[in-house]
Amino acid sequence: MSTTATHCPYCALQCAMTLTPAPSSETGAGAAVEGRDFPTNNGRLCRKGFSAPELLASRQRITAPLLRGDDGEFREAGWDEVLDLLAEKISAMRAAHGPDSIAVFGAGGLTNEKAYQLGKFARLALGTRLIDYNGRFCMSSAAAAGNRSFGLDRGLPFPLTDLQQASTILLLGSNVADTMPPFVQHLEGARAAGGLIVVDPRKSATAALTDDAGGLHLQSAPGTDLELLLGLAHVILNEGLADLEYLAARTSGLAALRRTLAPWWPERTEQVTGVPAAQIRRAAHHLGNAARQARDAVVRGETPAKVFVLTGRGIEQHANGTDTTTAAINLALLLGLPGTPGGGFGTLTGQGNGQGGREHGQKSDQLPGYRKIDDPVARAHVAAAWSVPESLIPGPGIPAAQLLYSLGGSHGGTLPDGTPGPRVLMVHGSNVAVSAPDANRVIEGLRRLDFLVVADFFLSETAAEADLVLPVLQWAEEEGTMTNLEGRILRRRRGLTPPPGARDELWIMAELARRLGAPGTYSRDAREVFDELRAASAGGLADYSGIDYADLDAGRAVYWPFRASEHDDGGAAPAGAMLGTPRLFLDRFAHPDGRAKLVPVRPAPTPPGDAAGLRRVGNGGSRPDGDPSALALTVITGRLLEHYQSGAQTRRTEALAAAAPEARAEIHPAAAAQLGLEDGGWIELRNSQGVVVVRCQYSAAIRTDAVFVPFHYPGLGSVNRLVTSALDPISSMPAFKNAKVTARAVPAPERESHPDDARTGAAV
Ligand SMILES: Nc1nc2c(c(=O)[nH]1)N[C@H]1C(S)=C(S)[C@@H](COP(=O)(O)OP(=O)(O)OC[C@H]3O[C@@H](n4cnc5c(=O)[nH]c(N)nc54)[C@H](O)[C@@H]3O)O[C@H]1N2
Ligand SMILES: Nc1nc2c(c(=O)[nH]1)N[C@H]1C(S)=C(S)[C@@H](COP(=O)(O)OP(=O)(O)OC[C@H]3O[C@@H](n4cnc5c(=O)[nH]c(N)nc54)[C@H](O)[C@@H]3O)O[C@H]1N2
Ligand code: SF4
Ligand SMILES: [Mo]
């Protein structure tokens, strides 16, 4: 086989790469990648991307279905055997307990085709309403905020390269220097101009970019971004920096917003956020002046130096994540940015297909095309596209975390309404035992199931709990499309022959549907599925009907929405030509009145105590009452450059595992001194949810009231055991970035957790 032009399997930047098999090999053994020229990555890759081919031929790869026997051990089994068995289980379960006894958990890493087919398979072949996916843990707050304010959610509503023309970028809770290293080149213009402003309780690698160029790092206390944004907006509105003309012409709701901003003068904001009032003023004035200059340049007919407000998981993964993202949107609207040549607002999508993954119907409340499942018109359209009666499409299910907590209806698991939870779960593309909130509770749920099926290529901690593991294809072995963080659709191409025992998930769904005698059709061919997706999405918010593989294969830059009626079918556009909608909202926002909504948001009243019953004080951990050896800290969780998500893949990559072999808690030396904790010593973090014991690492880059722990590890280092079940009421996003704990120095644990050891992990 020759080289193949494709994209990285990991994050939403979807860096373009060229895949080359080893000489005289058709499989992944010895395959290599290099960066390919493309507007988003310009030939660059990060360490994860470079090392991705190593996993294709990993010794740890599962290459035959694994079925758990009566002795509790896995044995290899044939595909016919396991699919027959699974179809029988599903049929029996449905007959005894109804279709909602089966649930499905999907992922934002799946191709558009697989995500679409999974939603259809769940609703029609299984007949269940209980499907949701890991994007709930990722983009849901930003998506909810975008829908509420703009009437539409697309992570970046403009091409990424627009950032290169920026003088000023406000980056809130995003650490792109580690999470999307090639992205940093697009920040360079603003950084060099002294206009990069980063909000993060840590001086992350991204916040450090502000150091030498006159930018600004606002080191807010964890979970206080809503207040900080209200403070910034207060200055902008009250000190004549808002774009009143834009607000009058393109938005609604200014009067109500004005009232909510009134109490947030900078000195008061400082008290809550810890960010000095002078810095708040400086940032607000910088943003306001830059936005005005951009506006003036547009009026003069010149190319403006643009201004952007961008958000990441740091401000979104909170129990008020939707409102906080809304406050960031309000700020961008006050500055007159969204939908103008002067700049814009965007959210950095995370997973490889985090964008497409939330458009095609694997979300509990959605149908393809970003349609609402409870909208009669949407249901009728999709039923027609699927050639089934509308009554066959179930109603809305429940969001991811609630779904996971409800598992195991035969053994006490209940849905929020008190009825028995699902008894069979199929997981496609997520390692929930490590990545979901309140991990101990999730693992208990998995163990209550009658039958757990996990489709994966590795024995992840979740697959290790399964009754049946279905080995699937990796990125380089399958066909399909991905939608990157800009809403641009990209082709994933098959460049290698998969191991003989692994199967395409489209094939698995088709084979199961056939055995179940399911209504609807289930193609095994990605292009056919895509064509069906196009028809199903036609007329929806995320309209893909004008997009075809031919345009993508010709290298045209295609952004949704792209209606079939807009496709002139000339097929003559050159490679790189922009089709569809590269820039959204230029004429109008997606609400019926064409206006963006200024949604007034307020912080919740301060709770009398937090989850651990601890007091919170400014910048510095507080002593929990009566305990001189302990400190109350906020755990913020996030990512290391070397590892991806739950680490199921990157912990199996030799160089990445060696570079970051175990979870480490980053703690300020001053906080550590209060605990009598040496650099490299063991720290215990404990709250009512669980316990984590990890080595610490001194870091002057973090606030003294916080500790940072990456979530890439299982066992004793699995930080999601400390994350509560509290959810954002609008998006159902967990509060991953805000767990209150009591910290102590402890002796080294008797038995260190082993990276592959899920079972001991759950037992602590
Ligand atoms: N290396 C690597 N890259 C990845 C991934 C990965 O797992 N590893 N995952 C991909 C995915 S799915 C996603 S969603 C993206 C995520 O990309 P990011 O959003 O950049 O990642 P995080 O590390 O989760 O969080 C970003 C920053 O938020 C800060 N933060 C924590 N709490 C708060 C807070 O209360 N307020 C503010 N303002 N900041 C806070 C953290 O200190 C951290 O530096 O990365 C993608 N890229
Ligand atoms: N504490 C804390 N927890 C977090 C976060 C945080 O910041 N802090 N971030 C959250 C975020 S933003 C995210 S996106 C989630 C992600 O967390 P997960 O959903 O667990 O994501 P991954 O670790 O990438 O797991 C993907 C699994 O599917 C497999 N896989 C990869 N591709 C495919 C495929 O095409 N098909 C199938 N069947 N399997 C595949 C991989 O081998 C792996 O086992 O974690 C969330 N959890
Ligand atoms: S930045 Fe993201 S897409 Fe690019 S190489 Fe790294 S993991 Fe892959
Ligand atoms: Mo994510």
TrEMBL record:
Protein name: Assimilatory nitrate reductase (NADH) alpha subunit apoprotein
GO CC annotation, single: membrane
Superkingdom classification of source: Bacteria
One BP term from GO: respiratory electron transport chain
The keyword Mitochondrion is annotated on this UniProt entry: no
Record organism: Zhihengliuella halotolerans
Compositional bias per record (Basic and acidic residues), positions renumbered to this chain: 749-764
SUPFAM superfamilies in the cross-refs: ADC-like (SSF50692), Formate dehydrogenase/DMSO reductase, domains 1-3 (SSF53706)
Record key words, sorted: 4Fe-4S, Iron, Iron-sulfur, Metal-binding
Domain 4Fe-4S Mo/W bis-MGD-type positions: 1-60
Region described as Disordered: 597-628, 743-764
Keyword Metal-binding: yes
Any Pfam family: Molybdop_Fe4S4
A GO term for molecular function: metal ion binding
PANTHER family assigned to the protein according to its UniProt record, in alphabetical order: NADH-QUINONE OXIDOREDUCTASE SUBUNIT G, RESPIRATORY NITRATE REDUCTASE
